[in-house]
Specification:
Blueprint (H helix, E strand, L loop, with lengths): L2 E6 L5 H9 L2 E8 L2 E9 H10 L6 E5 L2 E12 L6 E8 L6 E10 L6 E4 L3 E6 L8 E4 L8 E3 L10 E2 L6 E6 L6 H19 L2
Parallel strand pairs: 1-4, 2-6, 7-10
Antiparallel strand pairs: 1-3, 2-3, 4-5, 5-6, 7-9, 8-13, 9-12, 11-13
Length: 201
Amino acid sequence: MEAIQAQVRNQTTGNSVRMLRREGWVPGVVYGSDVTSQSIQINGRELDAALRQQTTNKPFRLVVDGTTHDVMVNELQRHPVMGNILHADFKKINMNEKIHTSVPVLMTGDPELGVATLVRHNVDVHCLPGNIPESFLVNVDGFNIGDVVLAADLEVPAGVELLVEPTEVLISVLPVKAKSEESIEAEQEAEAVAEKAVATE
């Protein structure tokens, strides 16, 4: 299990938070049923590196000034342009108690005909934290228009319960949309302009 080092954060005013971020820290909070909400700070680069190693729906080990908590990321706030993490909320969990969480549905491969479209990007599951799948990967190679993937078609590991109806459609293969006359004319005009520009060089 990935371990993240953190420190207790004593000052929580707006100015102190901005200063923390300038120094490379990410302010955060850890809370749970058996722990008082605690303000913390985490090295931004270390947190980014940890999140690249695993998805945010998997449990982490958060070590706050030497005290270890098993947690999951409850919420991440990112900068709308830069994408860096601005704030992180961690919820303490019991590794021996089942929880509800969301698992992404991903596609691989290409249909024989049509375009595969995700109808649902994630599904809810109920299981022990250590059994949470990183994703449900579906291979759509050879699929044809009209083919669908249902929740019942997923390969669900032992100990994991899907919290969706078996007949729920997750992926659907649809016809490729024909180009409109306007889009075709626009493409032809763009090509003519490009050819003219090349000819005059």
